[in-house]
Amino acid sequence: MAEIVSERAPGLIDHAVALLRDGELITYPTDTLYGLGAASRNDGAVRKLFAVKGRPPSQALPLLVSDPVMAEWVAQVPPLGHRLMSSFWPGALTIVMTRSEDFHSVALSGGQTAALRAPAHGFVRELIHALGEPITGTSANRSGSRPPASAQEIAFQLGQMVALVIDGGTVGRGVESTIVDITGEAGPVVIRAGAISSFEIEQAIGVSVRSSEDAG
User: Fold this and answer.
1) Comparing C-alpha atoms, which of 210, 214, 2, 37 is closest to residue 125?
2) Alpha-carbon distance 178 to 192, whole Å?
3) Looking at domain 3-215, does it have CATH number 3.90.870.10?
4) Whole-structure pTM over 0.90, yes or no?
C-alpha cells in the first residue's frame, strides 16, 4: 500500500515536493476531487502517470497552477481569461487557453492548448508554489473507474503505483470542475459541465457561453 499522510503533517510540503522532483507520483485532495499528481515538466513522471491511470497518451491532461501568474507562464492568457480567473479562481473552473510557445509538457500530448485551474484548496496551491511548476490535475483513479472518495480508497485502488497519498478527509464537492474553452473565435464553450454553471459564467463575464453540443 502507498504511504498515507495527513495534509496537516509537519514537513509534508517539502516531502511531497521532493518526491515530485524525483519523478514520483502523489495523490492529493482538492476542492472538487482527489487528484493524481506528477510534476508537469518531468516527462518520465507524466508518462508513468498515463500508464498508471490507463489513459491514452493522446488525451491531454489538465494542469493545476498556484495562481494566475503561473498560468501566464504556461498559456497565452487573453483578457477573457483574466476575467474568468478574477471571477472563479481559486475555484472549480478549468480554463482552456492557447499554450505558451515556451512551455512544453508531455501532459499536453503535443497540443497547442493547456487546460488550467487554480484549486480552492490552500494546501495544494502551496504545494504547487513550492514546486515551482504546475502539477497534473487528473482525478486519482484508473480511467473508467469511479473517482475515489477517500485516501484509503486511493491507496487500495492504486497501491504501490503512487509514492504518497495525502489525506485531506472528505473532499469539498465531489464534483468535477467545469471546463470552458476560450480559444475559439466564436466565444467561450463549456466542454465539460461541472461545479460551476454556464449561467454563473455568463453572469460573471457578460458573454454568452455555448455548450460543446451547441458548438458542434
Assistant:
1) 37
2) 6
3) yes
4) yes
